[in-house]
Amino acid sequence: MHKMDTYKIDLLSSGLGGKTFEYEIGDDFFADENGLIQRGSIHTTVACISAGSVFKFQLQSIGTVIVPCDRCLSDLELRIETSDLLSVKFGNEYADDGECVVVPESEGYLDLAHFIYEFIVLSMPIACCHEPGKCDEAMMQELSRHQSTRSGVLDNEDDNSTVSADFASDTPCEVGSEEPIDSRWEALKKLINKP
Q: How far is CA 115 from CA 97, 179, 191, in A?
């Protein structure tokens, strides 16, 4: 939970409809959420476009966030620009069915912090990676070395091409086994090598 009540909106206050709230979101906000986003600088505007039996809030967030690159794990700066609609109504107990958030009338306030964070995360791409050639070079070399070792791919230093250990020779490559490979695989191998 956030230490300050900055992101709490009193739904019982009069004149809420048409009101606008401005938030400057920084590193402390993302540290409190303890999620994927490490740091960031986001300007969020929350406008209450209707109040009554159902409250409708328009949330717009613009700025940048820092997340780990999915490939090299070094910091990646992502541009964020999102516009979302949040519907809220009163009920007996708190609920969020995806369509509308239900807030207990006895509490009477809505904490926007989690919703702002979720909308920012949902606006991010599925894969967060640097552009080709921009990843941390040392990490990429290490990753390449481990992938080559695990997959049985051998580096050919003469022509910078990779050759699979399974196809480097015609003999089956099974560690600690003298048995031939399955006859079905042999038949498939013959089809591949057929002129």
A: 13, 59, 56
In contact, 150 and 106? CB cutoff 8 Å: no
Distance CA 137, CA 139 (A): 5
CB 11 within 8 A of CB 88: yes
pLDDT digits (tens, 9 = 90+) for 166-179: 433 344 444 444 55
Three-class DSSP category at 7: coil
Helix (H) or strand (E) holding 8: strand 8-10
This prediction has a pTM of 0.70
Under DSSP, is residue 148 helix (H, G, I), strand (E, B) or coil? helix
Say which DSSP state 156 is in. -
What per-residue string of b and e applies to 124-140 under the rule 16 or more CB within 10 Å gives b? beeeeebeeeebbeeee
In degrees, rounded to 5, the angle at the alpha carbon of residue 88 between the alpha carbons of residues 23 and 84 is 50
